[in-house]
Specification:
Length: 211
């Protein structure tokens, strides 16, 4: 389905709306207003309406949104109406934690494999998924039409791992390696630096400025 081009900031907010809609449906809430979504997210009702308007008219003025209908629409917009196959590259502590989390808590993705170059971890199982050698990455990725790679290897191995990912036909990398990656322009990289996130939060713990 062709959809309007939306800013990255809008795309990043859609999963937040989705999580709230999932909770509302679990509690049998059939209709939700932009004001109620605002209360749950902290974004203004106007911002939420603008975000959704990028993709069509989903609500009724004065009534709100049908919760199930809106959830289905957001799933299709993001591409989560079917499970997305992903791989985890790096079977260290972070890779293991992210694998277990996504298997147990994220119904929208399917972790099909975990890869590593360490012979001491290859062959072990994490939540019933066997750690495989990096040499099998392309074979497995093509077989399962993998869309996203979660990269959790140490910085010194990140560029090589990223090149293996690209050679496997994967075009989206969620990078936890703390290393700048050099990949073709057709590959989308999202960098996650947990230490920077924590350091920025410390401002709120130490600042005397009233917010």
């Amino acid at each position: 389905m062709e959809q309007k081009s939306a800013p990255k900031s809008v795309i990043r907010r859609l999963p937040m709306y989705l999580r709230i809609l999932d909770d509302l449906l679990a509690n049998d809430v059939e209709i939700v207003s932009s004001r109620e979504l605002s209360d749950e997210t902290g974004f203004t009702a106007e911002q939420i309406r603008k975000d959704l308007a990028f993709f069509g008219a989903f609500g009724t003025r004065g009534t709100g949104y049908n919760t199930s209908f809106l959830r289905d629409k957001i799933l299709k917009i993001i591409g989560l109406d079917e499970q997305t196959n992903i791989i985890v590259v790096g079977a260290g502590h972070l890779g293991i934690a992210l694998t277990r989390f996504n298997i147990r808590q994220n119904p929208y993705v399917n972790v099909v494999a975990i890869f590593d170059i360490d012979p001491n971890v290859i062959g072990k199982k994490i939540a019933d998924i066997e750690v495989m050698p990096a040499s099998k990455m392309k074979e497995i990725s093509v077989k399962h039409d993998v869309k996203v790679a979660v990269l959790t290897v140490p910085s010194e191995h990140a560029q090589t791992a990223a090149e293996d990912i690209v050679k496997s036909g994967i075009r989206v990398i969620f990078n936890f390696s703390l290393s700048k990656l050099y990949v073709p322009s057709s590959v989308y990289i999202h960098n996650a630096d947990l230490s920077i996130e924590l350091q920025s939060l410390i401002y709120y713990a130490t600042s005397r400025v009233v917010i």
